[in-house]
Amino acid sequence: MANQMYFEDVEIGMELTPIPKPVTTRKLVKYSGSSRDFNEIHYDQESTAKTMWGNVIVQGMLKAGCLAHLATDFMGTEGFIHKLGCTYRAPDFVNQTFTVHGRVVSKDETPDGLLVACDAWVTNPEGQTTTPGQFTVALPSRDGRTASYPDQPPIPHDRSGTIKGERLRLGDPEVWKSHIGEWWTPWISQVERPWITAFADAIGDPNPIFREADYASNTIHGGIVAPPTFVEAMDADWRVFELEFEEELAALRSKPRSGGGGGGGDGFCDYNFYADIHPGDTMSGYTRWTEPYEKTGRAGRLVFTTRESVIENQHGQVVSTAKRATVSVYPK
User: What is the value of pTM for the model shown?
Assistant: First the structure.
């Protein structure tokens, strides 16, 4: 890690130190385990041969985690990440090295702190940008002002939802669309230190704040914390759903689209962060469908299925909010 970055040291246009990320099957399997994303397209060549890509592809959220690695390296142990988002425009593949880049685009003194916004992006070995994104961090100042998270947001989520949201996707599309805006049955995840460490290892982030208690206790965070995109790994309902309906999902993923071939995956993710996640925390998640939409891309018709989530800890604090989309590709 670099030395602590202070607000006064930042200049607009500053280039962040790029981070190369070699991708092996082992790395993808490690991420599958720590994130509980067991889609075979991310590690099994036989399964991917039937898809439009014809090769094992990197998890979209692994790339988001690598963008977060760039952000946490930049802000140092005395900073806080406020926002992170990215769009998945093209896949990255196994046995290649992608690189994470960043550039400062603004810096402002705000009621939420001394904020620095950066563009960030992933490039493949050919130099193509596959995953453009952005993040905002709060930094300390050399005059003694400390960084912090933004104030808790007023979010009217329903803690008693009963909709099995992901399960509806296996049925009639008109049925799940009729439940847009309704909160799903909440999920609960218990966070332990080995899980945090395994997740940090899987995204290739050696930051000691994710694994060394003595080191982390001497930072503004007060102890070991989880990497920012760890919030995605805790969505237990979706992971259990994948295991319970493994055969149905496999058939759905391999089903040819109109025009031959077909596929899809992650569309985008946008996160806002309001508190750290520590070992021993009990997290609860609340999700609901939002309006789907379509676009026309180079690959054909793109159908985006969107949802928003709220995650809070055992103290009732909102830890993060998220908007995410998966995309189905219907080739021309």
Answer: 0.90
